[in-house]
Design goal:
By secondary structure, the protein is an alpha+beta fold. The chain has a single domain, classed as Alpha-Beta Plaits (2-Layer Sandwich). It has 2 helices and 4 strands. It has a 4-stranded antiparallel sheet with strand order 2-3-1-4, covered by helices on one side. A hairpin with a 5-residue loop joins strand 2 and strand 3 (about 35-40). It is elongated and about 60 Å long. The mean pLDDT is about 85.
Length: about 90
């Protein structure tokens, strides 16, 4: 199980930019925090380090939908189409 969560600095935590050192994928949150997709261990670690963590939603771990995966030929065709003008082929 994974969680979409926002992380906020508190008086007992390091500054919010310190989450960079935690090796977790993150993006800025519109409300001034940092938005992350984390597991239970990551939540525990963030809280133990003094951050305020707000769980926004549950993101169950599941296999990737095979329909979302492109094969090599499809990717090459897309890339050729996207870069043709830059190479003077369009």
């Amino acid at each position: 199980m994974r969680f979409e969560a926002t992380v906020h600095a508190t008086t007992r935590s390091a500054e919010l930019h310190a989450v960079d050192s935690l090796d977790l994928d993150r993006v800025p949150d519109p409300e001034g925090g940092v938005r992350m997709l984390v597991g239970p261990e990551d939540l525990t670690r963030l809280v133990a380090e003094g951050y305020e963590v707000r769980v926004q939603s549950v993101a169950p771990v599941a296999p990737l939908d095979p329909g979302l995966v492109s094969d090599e030929a499809d990717v090459r065709a897309w890339f050729e189409d996207m870069t043709g003008d830059a190479r003077g082929e369009g």
